[in-house]
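Hi R.,

Here's the chain you asked about this morning:
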Amino acid sequence: MKRVIIIAEAGVNHNGDYQRAVDMVYAAKEAGADYVKFQTAVPELVISSVAPKAEYQKETTGNNESQLEMCRKIHLKLDDYLPLSELCREVGIGFMSTPFDLVSIDCLAPLGMDFWKIPSGEITNLPYLRKIAAKGGKVILSTGMSELPEIEAAMNVIEAGGIQRSDISLLHCNTQYPTPMRDVNLRAMEQLRSMHPGMVGYSDHTTGIEVPVAAVAMGAEIIEKHFTLDKSLPGPDHRASLDTAELRAMVNAIRNIELAIGDGEKHVSDSERPNIEIARKSIIAARDIKTGEILTEENLTVKRPGNGISPMRWDEVVGSRAIRDFKADHLIEI
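And the predicted structure, written out as tokens:
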């Protein structure tokens, strides 16, 4: 099995504090994630002054400010992303950031990201998709709030811009924070796989770690999950994020599941091979048996250990004569 790509989504959980963003890089690395991902935006280019907050944003940040005012507070400056990318290289973790506008795409383009990450909200943004495609490289496209025709249309735009479908990966996603379990629908990954993307994965907004771990067991090749240094911080995403200990637990669980999935072939594993002799049974003398005595169902039984004649040969043994004396509870030979 190919190693699952784990993206620790810092997002805007730094609340616009560059030092906190730095701390999140180190935390993601320590947790074992492959990438730490931020969100890059010029809020005025993304959100109109009359755009309302989402209901979950109202619940977490109140209703006394607009969505634009909220986002102005929690985004880093564009100049912060170059040093963050350099820090990631020094630390040894992949750097990613999701652009939310055309200027942010240009900001991130020189930073050498392995993937462009397109968020669910931009899947119908034609100018945005075309600009991403023109930059080239590999794309991870989140598909929250989308039907298959919308996903196909977005992939077609990216392909038309010069990026091969095999370089476009799809993430199943639900954009509600937190996502109710009844709305997760992990089996939707099967439909995404039918669209022949490069990889299929899952971007999780549930609480806890069990759903992304289950997604890996169902074949997800990429997992994205929000994390925070402190769930009590103000901001829209902290409450639906993992803390650093939970992030580490998720990474460990995913790596264990990767090992547990195996190669799909039913065979005796190296670890259990010694147990064959211990747990299986052999044909055993039920009582003392003399040389030449006929072996019968009365003087034979089946017991552990399993290093003698297999009970599957019972019919072959019954009716034959004892080749020597056998003491009770000892292995029979023929």
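Strands lie at 5-11, 35-40, 94-99, 115-118, 138-142, 168-173, 200-204, 222-226, 282-285, 300-303.

Let me know if you need anything else.
M.
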